[in-house]
Amino acid sequence: MARVSELESALQMAPAAFQALYSAEKPKLEDEHLVFFCQMGKRGLQAMQLARSLGYTGARNYAGAYREWLEKEG
């Protein structure tokens, strides 16, 4: 997926351009489960806030970050 630094432009792309660049379907504004995460939690939070500011109301941050996921699921 996109880095935080390119997230704003990525979420404003046309769906076809997003698909071509990221090999994934562009999230829809109404998607309920758009989850962001990072290694420690700060960039995930920034990404979630940015997505919400662009209208992605279902954007969430996995607050435990990658480290917690790895401990529980990895």
From TrEMBL:
Signal sequence annotation: none
A single Gene Ontology CC term: cytoplasm
Protein known as: Thiosulfate sulfurtransferase like domain containing 1
InterPro entries according to UniProt: Rhodanese-like_dom, Rhodanese-like_dom_sf, TSTD1_mml
Organism expressing this protein natively: Piliocolobus tephrosceles (Ugandan red Colobus)
UniProt-listed Pfam families: Rhodanese
Domain Rhodanese: start-end pairs: 15-74
GO molecular function terms noted in the UniProt entry: thiosulfate-thiol sulfurtransferase activity
Active site residues according to the UniProt entry: 38
Gene Ontology biological process terms in this record: sulfide oxidation, using sulfide:quinone oxidoreductase
Annotated TM spans: none
